[in-house]
Amino acid sequence: MIAVSEHNAPSDKHCPHNAAINCASCRLSAICLPLALAQDEIVQLDEIVQRGRPLQKGQHLYRENDHFSSVFAVRSGAVKAYSMSDSGEEQVTGFYLPGEILGMDGIGHNRYASSAVAMEVSAICEIPFANIEDLSGKLPNMQKHFFKLLSQEIVEDQRHITLVSKHTAEERLASLIVSISARNARRNLSPLNIRLPMSRTDIGNFLGLTIETVSRVFSRFAKQGLIEIDKKELVVLDIDALKHIASLGH
Amino acid sequence: MIAVSEHNAPSDKHCPHNAAINCASCRLSAICLPLALAQDEIVQLDEIVQRGRPLQKGQHLYRENDHFSSVFAVRSGAVKAYSMSDSGEEQVTGFYLPGEILGMDGIGHNRYASSAVAMEVSAICEIPFANIEDLSGKLPNMQKHFFKLLSQEIVEDQRHITLVSKHTAEERLASLIVSISARNARRNLSPLNIRLPMSRTDIGNFLGLTIETVSRVFSRFAKQGLIEIDKKELVVLDIDALKHIASLGH
DNA sequence: TAGTTTAGTTGACGTAGATCAATTAGCTAC
DNA sequence: GTAGCTAATTGATCTACGTCAACTAAACTA
């Protein structure tokens, strides 16, 4: 099936280190950090990127309150970020797919404001932030891009606030499906055949719903012929209807 | 009363332009942009800051989708940011008090993602972002500070997501009161005698509640002896109890 | 192969907060 | 002074989603 996340692809499974020897040759370069840089600048970025062993499912990339030192790019797999409130309940703050950057919440106070854990086997690029700051002083493109990245995360978080505070369960779930579909498309994966890397619990937590409500809404969408869903395998049958539901007012 | 917002102070009302001839002498310098800069760097910041006429209540600073060019610092008064969803409903995304920076949501796509409107007569400093980028290239302190500012806004937005998706009406409102109280304290205003610059409608919208629920919770807090409230005049009687409620789990 | 654990589904019922509606109190206009 | 507004409060009722509980089906293990 075309939509299976690429961490299952042989290349990643058998030689994860070779999957991207450098940023210039990485197949995510068009959507990841190199996006904003010129050829010779990518070389400089490349020198500071660290490519580690792949993370196993359940392994943490960093934990809330850890000393902040790096941001991370997902190369394959999927990562979940979550924070713990004073009262001990978990809040999933984001899902990160290949080409996406996480860890930027640590810049403000030199400590990560959230924990990040692999939801499946994942290859990760680590970029020490001190090096990013140096490079940003030298390369205006780099500085501009990071300002943009941070600002875009603000905008997304504000959209998410609207989603969870003003929208129904159906609108929230439709919105998540549409978002994942669009992010799949950006990576040249099928936007209609999706393997959800996260559990119902994570989805519910992220959307401010219970697992039961998530399950019921999935069932309702299936009954209406908008999707087919079997555990984590999701087939989108009517993306336009979902987009319409996602953009509905309350 | 000590807690009245300083836009009512004669100095601001009668000579708003003299209130801060430059950043170095501005009484908000300890909490605003100059915070992170050395003396000689503040001079450079000062050269790019534009201090305009005060905004009247209801006047806009910028509107959603306007071309992005500047970020703004509130010098006196209070500003509300809000965005309009596809479906036309308003979402209040933040309240900005003196010393606070807004407009950074525009960096990512060169258009403001929200509108900003004065909730009362407000003096505003405008800082063209192109100049900030230039200056950030030259002054590492400046670059670092802006990265931090952006990151902190991300962290705050994520806290707000938790607030509206996992907390009760009482916890949300207690949280807002505690936040405004703390921000008053930062400006050396009374943390217990507060003049709320925003309407019940704005509070409800910001917290994901209806105006009726906001009103009822205020009344309940008053009945419990935690606050006294008369329209926009709020006296905090038991800040510890409010902090406790604000940090409660769901 | 049965026994336990974990993720997900579905149903019955309860509740926090929304909705609808009536009332009050300032404010402006004339 | 009173008519018309708008912001806020308070009460009565409704409902979307949460809670509690029973059940199914993988997946793990011993």
TrEMBL record, chains A, B:
Q: Which domain of life is it from?
A: Bacteria
Q: Which PROSITE patterns match?
A: CNMP_BINDING_3, HTH_CRP_1, HTH_CRP_2
Q: Where are the transmembrane segments?
A: none
Q: Where is the HTH crp-type domain?
A: 167-240
Instruction: Decide whether keyword Transcription regulation is in the record.
Output: yes
| SUPFAM superfamilies, alphabetized | cAMP-binding domain-like, Winged helix' DNA-binding domain
Coiled-coil regions in this chain? Answer: none
Q: Which residues form the Cyclic nucleotide-binding domain?
A: 33-117
Keywords from the named record: DNA-binding, Transcription, Transcription regulation
Q: Does the keyword Coiled coil apply?
A: no
NCBIfam families, from UniProt? PRK11161.1
User: What protein name does the entry list?
Assistant: Transcriptional regulator Anr
Task: Tell me which species this is from.
Answer: Zhongshania borealis
